[in-house]
Amino acid sequence: MLDADFFRRWMTATAMSVDREAERLTALDSPIGDADHGSNLQRGFTAVAAALEKEAPATPGAVLILAGRQLISTVGGASGPLYGTLLRRTGKALGDDGEVSEGQLAEALRAGVDAVMALGGAAPGDKTMIDALVPAVDALDAGFGAARAAAEEGALATTPLQARKGRASYLGERSIGHQDPGATSSALLIAGLCEAEEAAGE
Amino acid sequence: MSDEKLVGIVLVSHSAEVAASVAELAKGLAGGGTVVPVAPAGGTEGGGLGTSAELISAAAASVDRGAGVAVLTDLGSAVLTVKALLAEGDELPDGTRLVDAPFVEGAVAAVVTAATGADLAAVEAAAVEAYTYRKV
Predict the structure, then answer these.
(1) Beta bridge partners of A34
(2) pTM metric for this prediction
(3) What is the set of domains in chain B, with CATH numbers?
(4) Which candidate from B48, B54, B77 shows the least CB-CB separation from A81?
(5) From CA A84, how far away is CA A87, in angstroms rounded?
(6) Residue B2: pLDDT over 60
(7) What's the gap in Å between the CA of A145 and the closest CA on chain B?
(8) Total structural domains in chain A?
């Protein structure tokens, strides 16, 4: 079972990897975006980590709802409402339970990903974060490691795609050949699940 | 009609200057008489280009007179942030609505219509209608 502490570790691990990879995310966002994805997410997840340390929510759902709220209010770009909605909707789907199963998490995360698709209007293949998140959720039944591998593969597979959502879509065919920054950061979020799991064994 | 509550208008742009200027333009074109509550919510809190959920919430609260608030946005994160705030349920005043309209033309139509004391549905309809205004 996964408790609130697991979810705090997930968010903290994601904050650390976003911090570590911020320059790479911004570099990926330079040719096809407005070169702010890394710095925006870094600001957002730094705020998430700080808020979780200060408030220490008692349930898994409450951890994700607080994290999502922080992202919506601090990121400043489209990734704020998108990641914020992902975490908030996942948190709401987890309800008030003090501990949740991996199956419950998989189901809740699917609700979160569906909410992101409804908000942004993106579908798989549009060269967005959805291209990492949907395969990850599909693989989650096989464990966090399988989900991480699926998310990373999904992110890499955005390179030959033509962007159909967001600012990159204005570039048309010129968006082909670049890995999507949002799918890349989504893979970091999913990888954070593995890190949170590994940290539990320490 | 003077005791009627007016619909509030919030203008959300990636740029603080654009939001403030469009607010001035719309109020100016609405003429004198009734003063419609209009608030810009442009850029990030730090003054950069982007969208601030805090500025949007504050702007909506500042123009809420109890008759609803029409929110017009430019694009991308401005649209997504307003939608995410509406989905939260308690972040924006009751009767706040994201209006699907062109930013400048829609703002003018919304403010002019709101100045007549029209309700939120009429303000929204006028702003949406601005899409049909052809220039060529």
Answers:
(1) none
(2) 0.90
(3) 8-132 (3.40.50.510)
(4) B77
(5) 5
(6) no
(7) 30
(8) 1
